[in-house]
Specification:
215 residues; mainly alpha; Endonuclease Iii, domain 2; 2 domains; 13 helices
Length: 215
């Protein structure tokens, strides 16, 4: 399993995307090389994803750090399962997120969720197995595929930022639908993860600098 996803303008993935989609190619040329470190601790990556749901990055990081500190620096399943509800809630978790973390921890602890085995499965099977855990939906599973397993062809159409990036880049007249993103993204296979990373970076450029692609 890779530890990073790294793309340059000479990468096979980037050359393919630029050849099949000139609009995306212009964005790729503007962004340049990308290196994304993967979260190789599979259990912690899922636990932190649950904590981060519906929160800003800053708020999620604050609560996660409080949780780690409250559990003595270790969020292992045994520590989650052994913690009092007041400890979890005191770190900033809602009651529902605390229950979601306990469900994840229990499944990992009893072996019914074997993350090492799951990491060897096809993408759709990974999603199917993860979404039986309370609080883990398709979006969280797809983020796991990208940012933990480094799978090459994931298009997370449930991600609002990705939909916004595609609607902006391709001038979809305000269309922010899953069908629209899926349709545009068909050309990017089998490297839709690479395309997604560039789209996220492109949206950040737009917000920071007002950059617009050539038309």
């Amino acid at each position: 399993m890779p530890k990073t996803l790294a793309y340059t303008l000479d990468s096979a993935e980037v050359r393919h995307l630029s050849a099949v989609d000139a609009t995306l190619g212009a964005l790729v040329a503007r962004v340049g090389p990308i290196e994304q470190r993967l979260e190789t601790d599979l259990y912690s990556s899922l636990a932190s994803a649950i904590v981060a749901q519906q929160l800003s990055d800053k708020s999620a990081a604050t609560i996660w750090n409080r949780l780690v500190a409250a559990l003595g620096g270790d969020v292992a399943p045994a520590h989650i399962l052994g913690a009092e509800d007041t400890t979890l809630r005191g770190a900033g978790l809602s009651g529902s997120k605390a229950s979601f973390l306990r469900d994840l921890a229990a499944r990992v602890a009893d072996g019914s969720l074997d993350l090492d085995r799951i990491a060897t499965l096809p993408d759709d099977d990974v999603i199917a197995e993860l979404t039986v855990v309370k609080g883990i939906g398709r979006w969280t599973a797809e983020m796991f595929l990208i940012f933990s397993l480094g799978r090459p062809d994931v298009l997370a159409i449930d991600d609002g930022a990705l939909r916004s990036a595609v609607a902006w880049l391709y001038r979809l007249d305000g269309e922010d639908s899953r069908n629209g993103i899926a349709r545009v993204g068909e050309a990017w296979a089998p490297y839709r993860t690479c395309a997604s990373l560039y789209l996220w970076e492109g949206l950040a450029l737009k917000r920071a600098e007002g950059w617009e692609p050539p038309r």
